[in-house]
Amino acid sequence: MQEVATRAGVSLATASFAINGTGARKVSEETRHRVQAVAEELGYRPNAMAQNLSRARSSFIGFITDSVATTPFAGEMIRGVQDAAREHGYVMLMANTESDPRTFHDVASMMLDHQVHGVVYSTWYHRQVSTPTGLSGIPVVLANCYTRGDRLQSFVPDEAGGGRAATEILTAHGHRRIAFINSDLSAPATTGRLRGYRKALQAAGIPFDKNLVLTTTPEQEGGYTAGLRLLQLDPRPTAVFCYNDRVAMGLYDALRTRGLSIPQDMAVVGFDNQEVIAAHLRPALTTVALPHYELGYLSLKWLLREGAPTTGEAPEPTRTLVPCPTVERSST
Amino acid sequence: MQEVATRAGVSLATASFAINGTGARKVSEETRHRVQAVAEELGYRPNAMAQNLSRARSSFIGFITDSVATTPFAGEMIRGVQDAAREHGYVMLMANTESDPRTFHDVASMMLDHQVHGVVYSTWYHRQVSTPTGLSGIPVVLANCYTRGDRLQSFVPDEAGGGRAATEILTAHGHRRIAFINSDLSAPATTGRLRGYRKALQAAGIPFDKNLVLTTTPEQEGGYTAGLRLLQLDPRPTAVFCYNDRVAMGLYDALRTRGLSIPQDMAVVGFDNQEVIAAHLRPALTTVALPHYELGYLSLKWLLREGAPTTGEAPEPTRTLVPCPTVERSST
DNA sequence: GTGAAAGCGCTAACAT
DNA sequence: ATGTTAGCGCTTTCAC
């Protein structure tokens, strides 16, 4: 930078102002242009580290995930966080803990050492987590998870809304006998989707029948066995809302072994919109998408705007529900 | 740090050496312990930015992907790169370009500004890329892609080896009439897997029959239609090697419509080991895994060791083939 | 509108 | 073995 300044015939200070046009100071248009021309010509690049040190604040934000490779979901959140970061001129420092506390501690320290402005902590499936420790002093926001009592701001999928929307696709098609293959896991998705299912039935004036709700492991295998059980019911349901796309995949297999066709003999809707399954099952599966991109995006937006309010007091942390859009394909 | 030094009754310099035990200088065991105790007590954390600035080199490495959310594959590479980075005390700066040249340029600048030691550039599927521009001056290594003439060091999956291994699973089971549903894309995977298939046949003394090689779009849909075509052949093949797991998924559907069972009537092996499909198809699919984790890990290892040799000349860049391990399940 | 100069928090000669 | 001191590359008062 010294060289740029000299070549442009100005002082170091002026060069600095001219280059990153900090509104604070007035540099004549002419000077600025001259300096910028020289900088361009010399291929000058500011040293981000020196800037950060000097400004006594970095332009880093941290993003911690518990698992990055299990599903493409983490990828969507990464994109969301990254897009929001770039919009604000921040650089994302990402780390994956694989749920190892020691690793978590290490990456938290690393981030603190790099003076991150805040961190978004996320999990690959929606769940409750204990308050992340070791991130003292900087704002933290949770994406796809939340803490007991919502002591920290968080953004999570609106499971109930999604469950309701899924079921309403079925009621809208005139189905009255709608089964729900739920998961046997204790998770917000399990309770939320069930709540949504019941709300939708209620809205359609259909009495809730607990015999139509099965629980199983939320995998293809579970969907298969639950599907078989479902077919024993008399009268048979005409539609099924599945906890997730993998369960629907298993249900497809079960229906197939009985020679039943979808959606004629049985309509089915899934949840998660796992592209590789949902879009490529035969017939393609109607489902509800999880808003991972938005979760990441909104979390970081919040962090940057409300995370460390410069004025006024900090807003009350809340658990913000993010809508799960439906994706209609050919199974309904 | 000044405070730590004062409280421990030593100079700033001694404190610095004591804390990050730079072998360069000798600090008595006793002093070091005293300083470290004080640092601990005060909860002192070094400012990474100041360190980087002072050392005139950062501890950053860059990782650029063209797409991070299409499949879980990117996640595996991220893990690989990150693990290697952490082993060497580096921090990963990640960026996703979504294949947008402008974004690429931006993230490249960002990385340069942060003085990254080098960058690994990766693509989500194995392919040739044009030499990334705008990364002048720093070492670059490619993961899952390569340039014309291999001007840059790269690490890519051994497609031919994988294709051969896949086919040999079939020949080992005694199959002699083995079809190959290949992709209609022009990609290293297409040619490589075919080459491997032919090698395996040859090794087993089976003459190559071009009627047994079909090409189709490498999706479920393509596998389905190709599967139907395959069933018209007389005599019918007894085994099929599919370009990827999605094609195998389609083939499963085709076999099912004809009431054929796997592996009794037809053995099938896929490629990619897309967990969500391969492990959950009925029966579970035997396949070949793509070594994404290793691609990321090895790339960064190379970058750190050979990328910028401190002594001797730079090694000749080569395209290193990384093995694709087979995963045997129940379809063979 | 512009320049001089004092740091930001740390490292690494160079002394002692 | 430890202390002194000069930067690293940039930002930002403060004075002109």
TrEMBL record, chains A, B:
Residues 1-55 form the HTH lacI-type domain. The lineage of its organism: Bacteria, Bacillati, Actinomycetota, Actinomycetes, Kitasatosporales. It comes from Streptomyces shenzhenensis. This is LacI family transcriptional regulator. Coiled coil: none annotated. PROSITE patterns: HTH_LACI_2. Keywords: DNA-binding, Repressor, Transcription, Transcription regulation. GO terms for molecular function: DNA-binding transcription factor activity; transcription cis-regulatory region binding. Residues 309-332 are annotated as: Disordered. It comes from the Bacteria. SMART domains: HTH_LACI.
